[in-house]
Specification:
273 residues; five-stranded mixed sheet; globular; 12 strands; single chain; 29% helix; alpha/beta; 9 helices; 22% strand
Length: 273
């Protein structure tokens, strides 16, 4: 971990105008990317950092508010942002490398809120949910026919919606089996305190990637993609996931149709682990 940090945070000033260097931004969103004891960590942070090292690209990785990170990658050459959901409306805006790790999104209610019944996406219009402003799910919820300020509320800070959900000021929250425990921990809850009500199977959501400014050298992007491919092939993704996610004892989980909202599943197949 220290070796990755030393390599990826080497000052870009040392490389001058070297096109074989990247400024990458990410946000606090455990277990994908976060800071602990002053060091950047996380599943997708480690994957990106390792890919940079294998591709011999000097990557300066910085935590930033999502909207700033996204805007910088959109407007500045040799700049990228992760963990970024790949979505048709974004496809032409960036060059993409990956994939990175993700888990299917689900809607959850509090266990005590048995009055909330969601059988399909149409039922979402009967309830409220919160999302960070500018998040990809703002587009997804809009495409589902939900209205901002009515069925969904946007917040300036990530996970602010979780606090509102815990206080029952929102009916539902969006999470995944991979991120759920980290989201709930902030408000003194655990996955045992919530119930999944709907898995969001939106075919337009193409998973998480590193989004890179489209004017960046194609050779740089190709080198990164080769590195990601090699990591998938040799099982590196699975080993990194194991450092951050302890999958629950499946025998203790109730039998439900929405088991993937609870079992820690990711887009990385067991064969890759």
């Amino acid at each position: 971990m220290m070796a990755l940090s030393a390599y990826c945070h080497q000052a870009l000033a040392d490389t001058g105008s070297n096109s074989n260097s990247l400024k990458l931004y990410t946000e606090v969103f455990p277990p994908y990317n976060f800071k602990k004891h002053g060091e950047l960590r996380g599943i997708n942070y480690e994957i990106v950092a390792t890919a940079c090292k294998r591709a011999r690209i000097q990557c300066d990785i910085e935590l930033a508010h999502w909207n700033r990170a996204y805007s910088n990658a959109l407007n500045n050459i040799n700049t990228g942002v992760f963990t970024t959901a790949r979505y048709p409306k974004r496809e032409h805006l960036f060059k993409w490398a990956g994939p990175l790790v993700y888990s299917n999104a689900c809607f959850y209610r509090l266990q005590e809120r048995a009055d909330i019944v969601v059988k399909n996406s149409e039922d979402l219009s009967n309830y409220t949910v919160g999302i960070p402003r500018g998040d990809i799910y703002q587009d997804v919820l809009h495409d589902l026919g939900l209205t901002e300020g009515k069925e969904y509320i946007t917040f300036s800070n990530k996970h602010e919606d979780t606090f509102m959900f815990a206080q029952q000021k929102l009916d539902l929250m969006i999470g995944s089996s991979l991120t759920l425990s980290f989201q709930l921990e902030q408000v003194g809850l655990t996955p045992d305190d919530v119930m999944p009500v709907l898995e969001l199977n939106d075919d337009a959501l193409g998973g998480n990637y590193l989004a890179i400014n489209k004017n960046t050298s194609p050779e740089t992007i190709k080198a990164l993609q080769v590195a990601f491919d090699s990591m998938l092939a040799d099982g590196s993704y699975g080993h990194i996931i194991e450092h951050y996610v302890q999958k629950p004892d499946l025998s203790k989980l109730p039998e439900r149709a929405l088991i993937r909202c609870l079992n820690g599943s990711t887009n990385i197949t067991p064969a890759s682990n």
